[in-house]
Amino acid sequence: MAAVEYRECLKNQCVAPGFHTVDGCQFFFSGNDPSAVFNCAACSCHRSFHRKNFLKREPERSPSTAESSTSRPRAGGIRRKKELFRRRRRRFTAEQKEKMLACASLLGWRVGWLRAEVESFCEEVGIEEKAFFNWMRNNKRKYETKP
Length: 147
Prior knowledge:
By secondary structure, the chain is mainly α. The chain has five helices and two strands, in the order E-E-H-H-H-H-H. Helices cover about 35% and strands about 10% of the residues. Strands 1-2 form a two-stranded antiparallel ribbon. Keywords: DNA-binding, Homeobox, Metal-binding, Nucleus, Transcription, Transcription regulation, Zinc, Zinc-finger.
């Protein structure tokens, strides 16, 4: 379990709405009174009004684990989340783009109640509905003609 330290008081002392004023208490001091353990002795606010700071503790290593980690280096290293879950970009062929442009202009760049037609079109062209809707949203301004 991580150690917790309570820092400055963040309670808004201002009466007027839209303003924020704090009392200047810089640290949570627990008093000697056992009935008021969660109240700060300096500002008399509850502990939940003070900023919570989690202290990082290094895990203690036993001599056997420290020895094994130094004897051989780790291969690969740690991967970042961004590298693990990168969004795959869809690439459309020129033929698919032409068909999508024709379909979108027939629909008036809005799907509305024509979901069945869009579904059959997407099966015919070989793309997902979600991909077609994304393409329509991204290319609407580029291709749409104004009356």
